[in-house]
Please model this.
Amino acid sequence: MVLVLFILLLSVIIVIHEFGHLIAAKIFNVYCHEFSMGMGPLLFKKKFKETTYSLRMIPIGGFVAMAGDTDNALETSVDVKVPFERTLPGISTYKRIIIMLAGIMMNIVLALLISSFVFLSVGRYAYANGTVLSDVWENYPAYEAGLRAGDEIVKLEYPDLNTSIKPDSFDDISLFMYGNEDKEIVVTVKRNTSELTFTVIPEYNIDEDRYMLGISSQGYNIVDVNLGNFIFIGADYLYSVLKTILFSLSQLFRGIGLNNLSGPVGIYQATSEAVNMGIESYLLMIAVISLNVGVFNALPLPILDGGRVVIALIEKIIGKPLEEKYINIMMSASMVLLLGLMLFATMQDILRLF
Model:
């Protein structure tokens, strides 16, 4: 069952992404030869007007075949002869950009709808209560360094990593420290009207099996979710997830946290845990991964939607299409990079299993 739900999770996210491309292409009258759910050998197809809607054997993935879409090697080429103005190169740059970004927008819309209705069904939502310390435990590193209850954490910094953050909540603090829990950290707090700085080295706690500073937050504010605020609640939740994604990406670009990367194996494990926790957790898992897919596709790699937007803008600036050989080189390089990243992440997942 977990395997079925894992495949369903990935399929829904990818098909929704490709459906966004299809809808935008239809709006701008770009000829779409096929819209496929799944990859590989054909199982079923049905033609509606000029587009064939198909189901393929491998249930993970999908594509929309648009006329003139030769940049992306993952898409199926369109062999049907159509007027140039009905191809991707034959429409204006802003229309091409909208088509490329439509998949990302559909992932965001899917994530928002799922998270909003999940919290509406649950009926409650927890807001983090800022960064004021409710307690600082004696004989722990934070207390020994000089922090006290009532201090408000305004900045955290890892001197060795040359990275810092101004947290809005304890969730931000946990995210910032993730993967670096054993490193020396500089904590700046506001106490009354003064700002004080302390250097703290987390201590490993055998009973808890983790590194600890010895501090606690003031908890969460619980609010009721209803038809009047459920969309805003879903958006707030996704905003917190988005901050996590962007922070993690910024760390990865600096070479920090590579050992925390997860690939398909890690996503499968997380799906299994979410399924065991109930339908709400599983649905939120779909929302989170959908948002991740949207953000990832916005990266400026030529094989991704973000990169294709960059290519469209470059061609607009120079006033002519880029030479095909250069596009092929960029596509191949980004494909190798992505495959290498996926292989590395999968190896990390396997190592964590043992």
Q: What stands out?
A: The chain is about 50% helix and 20% strand. The chain has a mean pLDDT of 88. The radius of gyration is 24 Å.
